[in-house]
Structures are given as C-alpha cells and as structure tokens.
User: Fold these one by one.
Assistant:
Number 1:
Amino acid sequence: MIDLALVPVAGWGTRMLPATKSQPKEMLPVGRKPVVQYVIEELVNSGIRQVLFITGQGKTSIENHFDIDAPLITYLRETGREEQLQDLQFEREDVEYFYTRQRRQLGLGHAVLCGKAMIGQHPFVVALGDSIIGRHAQSDIVSRMTTVFEREKADIVVCFEEVPAEEVVQYGIAKPKGAVGEVFELADLVEKPSIAEAPSRLAVAARYVFSPEIFEALAETKPGKGGEIQLTDAIRILLKRGRKGIGVKLAANEQRFDIGNFESYFQAFIEFALHDPQYGPALREHVRKLLG
Ligand code: UTP
C-alpha cells in the first residue's frame, strides 16, 4: 500500500507575477481554500499518510498553513465562534508532514530528486502542488494510480488528461503502446509536439507514481532549457530501458485545474466559487447581470 507522496512547491511561479511576488502560487485561494490544501485533501482521500513537501525560499506560509494553530482555535472558542472551527478541520487530517528545501530552482525533476534521501527505497506518489484534480478536488485518481502500480508491477504510472488537438503543443504527450483505455501501456512521452506530430491527445496531468529507480534516472538527466532538470526526461530514460510505464486517464468529471497561469486560475476560481454551496447561487445571479 503506497502511502507516501512528494509534493513539489518550490517553483518561482513567474507566470503569475505580481500575485506571486511575496506569496507562493500554491497558497493562492481557489474559492475558499488555497490550492495546496485541495491537493493534500485529495491525497489523504486516496490513502496518503506521509507528505514530503519540497519547498523553497518564500514558501513558509505553506508550512504554517498545515500547522495546528492552537491560539487561533482558543480565540475562536473564547469569542463564541465554535462553528468556524469546522474550517480548521483539515489541520487534523491523519497525515504526517515533512519538509525539505530545494535550494536552487533547477526544475521539477530536480525538486523530486531533493526527496531522494527521505524516500529511500519506497515507491511514492508525486503530486504537483499547483494543480487541483476535479472540482473541489473530488477525485480518487491517486488511489486508482497506486492500485494500478501495484497490480501491474509497474515502475512508472502517469496521469493523463485528454486535451483538444490544438493544445498538445503546451504539454508532455503520451505515446501509447497499443490500444488506449482508461489504463494503457506507455511507449514514450513527447514533450510539446506539433499538432501533426503528436502521438495522442493525452497530456501529462500533475500526478505520478514512481519506483525509487526514478532517482537514478534523475541523477543521470542532463539539464535542458534554463538549466532545468525535467521529470519527463527521467521518465523517458526509464521507458527506454524497458521499465514498465502505465498511463491512467482522468475521467470526464475530473478536470485538471492548473494554477500555474492566470487563464486557468481565473477559470478554476470562477468554477469553484459558482459551485460554493453558500455563495454560489447569489454569485450566479451576479455573473448573469454582469454578462448582461
Ligand atoms: P511549474 O512547471 O509551473 O514551474 O511548476 P514554476 O517555476 O513554479 O512556474 P513558472 O514557470 O515560473 O511560472 C510545477 C510545480 O513544480 C514545482 C512548482 O512549485 C509547482 O508546484 N517546482 C517547479 C519546484 O518545486 N521546483 C522547480 O524548480 C520548479
């Protein structure tokens, strides 16, 4: 049973400046909660009990967010606002947190490599701290992926989302081996292909399961653009060596919300807020008026 996840949150978030100048993009709210809280709630629902955050400079608010805030709890009690304690219930999740810092932002692959000493010889999940899966994180994709990892004796499991043909140019795209169902075998990954050259419309979607061999592949991976070590390159090294890679497709109701750029951040915020049980109905009215 895989119960360990590495959550990289050390990136600069330059595409979201100035919002991210002095706060992490992973702490931006989407509706009521910061992005990374959705990520942790999703992981806990999929059986994760240990989380290793890869943090960096300017990211301490993430650590503070997952602390148990005794003075705040006392204050809410003493001022008769017991019902608001519900909003802090996530502090009590059955999960242990660990933190280490990526001291230089050398890419996602390098961030994962920073977890090597702690993860040791265990298989583990990687969940990007800036991506929510499913509206209000209602998804058990990680549990489906860890089940497939164990059942298929895989070395790599990657989550994919089907994207429109014109969007393949923005993502790592799956080259499947054989027929594509909800679960399929992975021949290779192609980084940002042209529409004509894309082997599928299945885009890598922010969740992975790895055997510890990924660390050896990452250590061998040559830095690419901007000196960054790409996780995709390390996966490709393992696939070339004949290691077993499996793709798992997100269901139609499990959209990936990428909070790494303003376009999809705005879309996610609106969608989550419109579906807020308390404020959603009035907001719908307001938006209708605005749209005239
Ligand atoms: P992105 O690929 O969106 O990179 O990160 P970024 O550097 O944060 O963003 P831009 O391009 O400057 O706008 C995907 C996830 O990987 C983490 C990020 O924090 C994010 O959760 N990451 C990325 C790291 O932990 N370290 C890195 O060096 C890069």
Note: Residues 5 and 51 are 5 Å apart (CA to CA).
Number 2:
Amino acid sequence: MRKLIAGNWKMNGSLAANQALVQALRADVGSPGCDVVVCPPAAYLAQVQQLLAGCPSIALGAQDVSEQAGGAYTGNVSAAMLADFGVRFAIVGHSERRQYQGESDLLVARKAQQALASGITPIVCVGETLAEREQGLTDFIVQRQLSAVLAVNGTHVAEMVVAYEPVWAIGTGQTATPEQAQQVHALLRGQLRAVNATAASQVRILYGGSMNAANAQALLAQPDIDGGLIGGAALKAPDFLTIVGAAA
Ligand code: 13P
C-alpha cells in the first residue's frame, strides 16, 4: 500500500518560518513515492494552503477539529471550515490534546465523525504512557482508544488513518524499536479486521514518536507500519524529505 508521511508542526511556526519551510519542501519533494501531508497550526492553514497551491505532492492537514458541526462554540474550528481551506486530513486524539485539553475517547470519536462528514480523513491517534507500558497495559489502552472511535465510525473504517504514538516516545528521542512498534501495529490491524476485514488491509497505520531521518527506514520496513506522523523532524525540510524518501 502507498505509505503516508504526515508532518505535525504542533504549535510551531510563523508566517516567515512557514514560508521558508514550505518553499524548501516544494523545491525538493518532486513526485514522491508516498502520500505527504503537512499539518500547520489552524491560524496558518490559509497561508499554507496558498503556499502549496499548484503542488499536488503535498496535502494540507489540520491538527484538530471540533466535535461540533457549527454554532456557539467559542474557539472551535469546524470540519466544514477546514474543508473550505482545502484541508484533507485532520489529526484527532493526539496525546497532547488528551493530556492538556482532557480529551476523552468519546470526544475523539466525535471529532473523527465530524471530519468524516466533511470528507476529511481523520488521523486517529492512540498510544500508551510509560507508566501504562510498564504496567503491561499497552494493548488494553490502545485497543480501548481505537474501539471508541470504531464504535461511532465503524462503517467508515476504510476512510480512516490510525497513528500509534507511544507517549513515552514523543519528543523524547526515545523511539520505539521497530519490533515494539510492529507488535502494536499488528494488534491494531487485527482490531480493524474484526470490524471490516476488507478495509483493514487498506487502512494506513502510522508510527509516531521520535521518528527521524536516521530511524525511519527501519520502522517503515515493518509489515504493519504504513507511514509516519512526524513532529520535530517535520520542521526541518531535509529531515522530513529524507523520511518521505524512506517511505517511497
Ligand atoms: P516527535 O516526532 O517530535 O517525537 O513528535 C511525534 C508526534 O507527536 C507527532 O504527532
């Protein structure tokens, strides 16, 4: 299957920095052998949409989406608004939002539902903390997180992307080994298969957590690792493009 490399810029960037980054990506991305998406902060979606005009190799993504369709929800951005700006993917349930914004499994499921209703592919993030891993709870946690999304959106399995992001690997430089990641990816694939066997083999399951130019190839070689969700390394064009090359 065609792999997907997504850059999550998190709360980084500026008009000037975004312009430099997108220009550098455009200059060297060519015709990549995988799908590529960049997810800038919401405030910069319009800017990055314009910077990407005429560049079909790089799609636009959002880092979050409202669970509401519209109305009196101060500060929220709806899926329809994202679609207005050409957004094709939306990250939902990132561990930083689960941790700092208190997002529940059900809220994440409703966010995915809104994205799907506007034709936006949700990138559904799951992952365990270090404490949970040490207690042997990894499988339980990731399956609970994914099952909440599937319970609400089970008929749309084929239109989703899943991202396994072990919390202990995010921004720490401590990557999961390819074998550790593959084990969880295979578990998630099995869970998808139980809902829709045909669709499950086409759902891309991304790995995220300190993936970088040096370790991407080994991770992406695993049978159930279908791409990457990249944080820090997505802010450096050469590093991000090296990862894109490794996914080709
Ligand atoms: P890092 O690549 O910086 O560890 O971040 C991973 C991540 O959280 C992507 O969503």
Note: Residues 8, 94, 165, 170-171, 208-211, 229-233 surround 1,3-dihydroxyacetonephosphate (CB under 6 Å).
Number 3:
Amino acid sequence: MTDLSSLTAADIRDGIAAKEFSAREVADAAFARVEALEPQVRAFNQLTPELAEKAANRIDAMVAAGEKLPPLAGVPAGIKDNMNLVGTRTTCSSRILADYQSAYDCTAVRRLLDAGALPVGKCNLDEFAFGSSTENSAFGPTRNPWDLERVPGGSSGGSAACVAAGMATVSLGSDTGGSIRQPGALTGTVAMKPTYGRVSRYGCVAFASSLDQIGPFTRSVRDSALVLNAIAGKDDMDATSVTQSVPDFTAGLDDGVKGLRVGIVRDMLELEGLAPEIKASVEAAAARFAALGAEVDDVDIPAARHGLSAYYIIGPAEASSNLARFDGIRYGHRVDDASDVLDLYMRSRAEGFGPESIRRIMLGTYVLSAGYYDAYYGQAQKARTLIIEDFAKAFESYDVLLTPTTPEVAFKIGEKSTDPLAMYLSDVFTIPLNLAGLPGVSMPCGFSRGLPVGLQLIGRHFDEATMLRAAAALEADLALDMTPATVRSLKA
Ligand code: GLN
C-alpha cells in the first residue's frame, strides 16, 4: 500500500476519485504520522481529528454518490493558529488568547475546507507572528523535521514543519515579513506569499495590515498553485482583497521557461552575512534556468537595503495599533483583582503578552508618537516607496527575479533567541516583497550540511502564474528528494 502521507494533494484527490483509497484512509494516515512524529516535532497547538473525520466522511459520501470531487478533496491541511476556524481555539500562540474560541471562520480557511481539505489541526507560530524561529510561542518551540535540534523558521514554523514531516499535505501560513517563505526555506517546502490583496485576510488575526498576506505551504509547486486556486479572490469581508480575475494557476505550469527573462538580484547576493553555500546554490539554480532556455542576467534593487529598517518601523507601528484590542475587556486574558480600569488594562496585558510582543508594541508606539512620527514612520514610508519603484523598474526588463530566501540554513534552537537583531536579519531577503506587495515563493534548491536551502522567486504584481511556472520548471529539473531525517527514520 502506498504511503498516503507522502502523496501530493493532486495525487490524493485523484486516488480518492479513482477509489484507490478513501478520504477516511487518508485522514487515518495523516493522524498516524501525527502520532509518530508530533511528540518530537510539536507543530500543532491543537489537533482536530473530529473535524477531519467529518470532512472525510463528506468526501467519501460524494464518492459513493458518484459526485464530482472538489480540487482538494481529502487533502490533510494544517492551519496557522492565527486564523479562525469555528470549533477551534485561535490562540496566536499567546497566553493572552490561550482560551479564545473562534467565533467565525477565516475566509481563506473556509475556502480551503470548501475545496475538500481535511483540517488536521492549528499550527504553532511565534506569538502573534512576531519572529523567525517559532521560539516566541507561549506554548514552546516547534522543531525542524530535518534536525530536531534546529528551528523550523517562523513565524509559521508549525505550518512548515507539519508539511515537511508529512503530518499534513498542505498548510496555510501568514507572511508579513517572510513568515511563510523563511520557514519554507528552512524546512525544504514550497512556500508562497501571494500578491498583497490576492487572498482575503478576513479572520486572520492582524499583525501589520498593509503587509499581511495568507499563503500555502506544500511539497510541490503544483500543489501550491492548487491551494492558491482555492483561497484566492475577492472577499467582501476584506476591503483590501482585490477584484482582479483569478486565473487557474495550474494552467501552463509545465510550459517551461524558454525565453523567460530571469533577473538575479545581484546586490542581494553580495550581502555580508550570506552563507557561501547558499550563494552558490542560488547561482547554480540561475545556471539551470539558463540551461532550460531562460535569458538570465544580473539586476540590482538598491533600495532593498533599506527594507529591514523600514519594516521594523512600519511593522511594529501597525502591530501596536492592531494589538490594542487585546486589553482584557474586548479580547483576551483578564486579571480578576484589578483595582481600577487602568490597572486592569496594564496587568492583563503585562501578564498576557510575551517579551517579543511587548518589544513590538513599545517600538510601534514610540515611532508613532507625535515628536518622532515624521523622523521614523514618515521616513520609513518614503523608503517603502523607493523599494516599490526599484522593483517596478526591474520588472520592465525581467519577468521573474531570483534571490536567496534566507542568509543561512536552519539554526539551532536557542542560537539567536537572545539577540533580536540577529533574528531580524533572517528576513532580509523576504521583507522587501512585503513592503512592495509583490508575490514570492521559496522552493528547495539544494542542501548545505544536510539542511535544505531555499531559493526565492519573485513575480510581478498578480503574476503568480509566471513565478510558479518558473518554479515548476526548476523543480522538475532539480528533482530533489525532500524527505527529512525524521521521516526517513520512520521508514527505516
Ligand atoms: N520575522 C519577521 C518578524 O518577526 C516576519 C514575521 C512575519 O512575517 N509574520 O516580524
């Protein structure tokens, strides 16, 4: 019998449609994998076997009735625990929301489940998505299935780890400054941030509303396109979701890259602190594109070097405003012995928020304060405009841009947790895309010391299709085996 946990979403749906196996069997295989690996990996804050079983039964009833199956029928899915799903808690991995029950469904989650996916559970994250390692979770870190002593990246570390480990076939994460792509790189998964506005943010707890975007983790580029098909498109509940037509992102995936103009972002490759093996892997990937018929050349995005600084002003500014609602009254943990309302606010928040959340709220409040607004927030917005312009100029000559996803492979748990600046540097290549609203996908492009290396492909606004076509061509060419050590040991 085939190992159902290793199949792609497309294979699962087709196998169920052909009655090779049932959705129930797929769910059972996913939870068997959870039983074997979750005690070590700890990707989930909550498991949802009853919801998965209900969803699987619906699919199996459709098969029995001879109905046409939806595109993600029977596909086990992890959901980042900052997205609401009725019947689950939405904790954001924070003590302040530890008991919060979802009151409604996040649109992207609803669409994923309507497309037939089986919800396996809610995935661990850095508290409120602040972080790059999942160590900022109030419920403990998630571990990287490639090496359990290392981080899976973050903030969507649980979503990345569950897909890498085969506990889910696909998952949803959110990406404000790299939180899908960076953990994707560190766990050897395909991890996409769509164009800002492509996917509704409704029901995903806001971090920085002008930067946040939901997207998929998968084990293949085709699956990434399939999930995007399911979740993309206008939603009346999110005014920033756009009416732009949604193409079938799987169409043309196999058309290759002949004549495609691919730009290597050279000034990013020269950045100090980039591991030499990662630079070499990215250059090797670029050479493969050339061999496959693309026109490959160097391009610079000079303003991107201001990205990290601008992001650590704009991100915390928006976060400090978004997190004001967690005050013990409207939402969240409340002390029960407050002497007055101010005491209630202050102590509920001090007890509920972890150190990184407190740091972001303080940074954000500071840069928005009357005396500093222009010097910090105003300047950061100007830098953001320059970044948007540099990318627009590059896309006059190129169809897809390439950078590393991260400066390093997965680091050890604890290695950077006391040094916020070192941690922030993890996202130096991913953040400029959020500032510019551009789509990006991280895909495995090789290994360094046995750990996955990620390549970031960047597309034009709303041209995820071309970006994914390039990714699919490279994926087929490299044909890497992305089975992590924990999964190999299960099979041995
Ligand atoms: N790691 C970045 C941060 O800490 C990005 C987080 C994210 O994309 N949610 O802000």
Note: Residues 129-132, 155, 175-179, 207, 315, 427 surround glutamine (CB under 6 Å).
